[in-house]
Specification:
- The structure is a homodimer of 191-residue chains.
- Helix content of chain A is 72%, strand content 0%.
- With 191 residues, chain A is mainly alpha-helical.
- In chain A, helix 1 crosses helix 2, helix 4 packs parallel to helix 7 and helix 7 packs across helix 8.
- Chain A is elongated and about 65 Å long.
- The N terminus of chain A is likely disordered.
- Chains A and B meet through helix 8 and helix 9 of A and helix 8 and helix 9 of B.
- Chain A binds a DNA duplex (30 and 30 nucleotides) through helix 1 and helix 3.
DNA sequence: AGAATATGCAACATCAATGATGCAACTTCT
DNA sequence: AGAAGTTGCATCATTGATGTTGCATATTCT
């Protein structure tokens, strides 16, 4: 994106990455953690963090940008507008889970603070909405289902599933989608 | 609980209540809000807050204690061990939603910080687990369902539904339980 | 009215987090 | 080797939140 420094560029970028990863690890555990704690977790002096990120806000923004990028890519990779709804649902879920497990904090904050990230998230939400609409038309979702509620339930399940931090995201996704579509009941006594 | 002050007791208690309510309102919107903001929201000087609560920690603990009490009462009122599982599920859900809508922050933090509150929450979790076990035995939940996953899905849905802040908790509970048991799909193409 | 209690206001002390800077030491590229 | 760049360390200023206290002023109970 920039042509500022040629030499030693890889070193600096590696440090930036290390800090971003450490920040996610620390902040997901305690959103109020200090820059000192983040620096320590990254195995770096606090001043170094401040050299790379002008302010705490800038650091969080960078995390949000990074996570948002991965998020968008995760959705793209599933081709949710061209693949059959049910398949796309599984694929999107598995891909997004992978990102959300590693960047849960950054993704949650992205909505609130960063302007660009918010735009990307809004775009993804639209795509999600379209996917759900297609799923309903295809008979995957019931015809009488409230799409807004459906999307919120889906997000809630993703959030919950991501807490497992299981590396088998395929299995997580399978269980999640199964629960979303079939629920957990037998159907007895429910009219 | 205490016999310290007889006169003017009602005044002080009213102030305490006002502060607790304001704190919940403010902190649910921004967990990092200052005592100043809380005091302002309560229509009270910051010093008054500090007179009633020795520290920020004490304030949060008081919120947790208050919310936890209401939480336990909400579960009790549904008689989850004696009522038929499905009925109890609806009733508990509606009651808990009522509390969670008004005390979402206090209930979430309760688990982490306060020791007594944690005990109550643990007790409630046990009751929830038993209720789910009964539901499975009664054929309300499928026999092959993982109870741990079921409970987490249930919590996630409650958390999500509580965001609606709708005052019709009966309707919310109905939709929530319906989603939990039946899911949102038609069952087509799912083996 | 008088006593007890509660609150607002102003002021103060403390403390932790943030952000900036200069300097020496080290690594990497040419 | 020399230049450029990066980091660690020590240090300092600033800021915002926290918690305390004294005093004047209601408010309420008896």
């Amino acid at each position: 994106m920039s042509g500022t420094t040629r030499a030693l560029r890889s070193d600096a970028e590696r440090t930036v990455r290390t800090i971003l990863v450490a920040a996610e690890r620390v902040l997901s555990g305690n959103p109020a953690a200090s820059m000192e704690q983040i620096a320590e977790a990254a195995g770096v002096a606090r001043t170094t963090v401040h050299r790379r990120f002008a302010s705490r806000e800038a650091l969080v923004a960078a995390m949000a940008a990074w996570a948002t990028r991965q998020f968008a890519e995760a959705v793209d990779a599933a081709h949710p507008e061209t693949t059959p709804p049910l398949v796309a649902l599984y694929q999107v879920t598995a891909n997004v889970l992978r990102v959300k497990i590693d960047w849960g904090f950054a993704m949650s904050r992205a909505l609130i603070t960063d302007p660009d990230a918010a735009a990307v998230h809004a775009r993804v939400e639209e795509r999600c909405e379209r996917l759900f609409a297609r799923a309903r038309e295809a008979g995957v979702l019931r015809a009488d289902v409230d799409l807004h509620w459906a999307r919120r339930v889906y997000y809630a399940l993703i959030h919950e599933a991501a807490q497992a931090r299981d590396d088998d995201t395929e299995a997580l996704a399978a269980r999640l989608v199964d629960t979303l579509l079939r629920g957990l009941g037998t159907g007895q006594g429910l009219g």
